[in-house]
Amino acid sequence: MWLVEGLASMLYMDDMKAALEAHGLAMEMSAGAIATGLLVSLISGLTIVFFYAMARARLGPGPRTAVTVASVLFVGGYLLWLLGYRMMGLFPDRLLLAWGVIGLVEMVLAALLGGYIYQE
């Protein structure tokens, strides 16, 4: 997830910096911020695999279950986070839409990889 996010950030980094600067904020990527990003990605990935393992009993193993789990977690978490940013007016809609698409893709890819690796 961190790899996808890191690569995708090249597409929107300038827009994100401009939006933050418009509110008098700055974005600094300290070593601590990078470590936090890695940790959050790891926790997110492990959470997806945890829910995939639980969903296998109900939905069966395979890519369809992985995509379902990723989609549900996206709607229940990531999408709500994006809507919160929209309500605050912190970032433009175009940027939030890009984050949403990228987030859904990275979660689905993580779920597919986790489902492929996971063994009972």
Global mean pLDDT: 91
Q: Structural class per helix/strand content?
A: mainly alpha
Distance between the termini: 23 Å
The ordered H/E elements are HHHH
Task: Describe the global form.
Answer: elongated
Largest sheet: none
Q: Could you list the spans in which at least 5 consecutive residues all have pLDDT below 50?
A: none
Amount of helix = over 70%
Number of helices: 4
As a whole number of angstroms, the C-alpha radius of gyration is 16 Å
The number of distinct structural domains comes to 1
**Oligomer category:** single chain
* Topology, number of strands: 0
Q: Give the amount of beta strand, in percent.
A: under 5%
Explained architecture:
- It is a single chain.
- This protein is mainly α and 120 residues long.
- It has one domain.
- The protein is built from 4 helices and no strands.
- The model has no long low-confidence stretch (mean pLDDT 91).
Tell me briefly what this model is.
The protein has helices at residues 2-22, 31-59, 63-88, 93-117.
Keywords for this entry:
single chain; 120 residues; mainly alpha; elongated; 84% helix
Give the helix/strand layout.
Blueprint: H1 2-22, H2 31-59, H3 63-88, H4 93-117
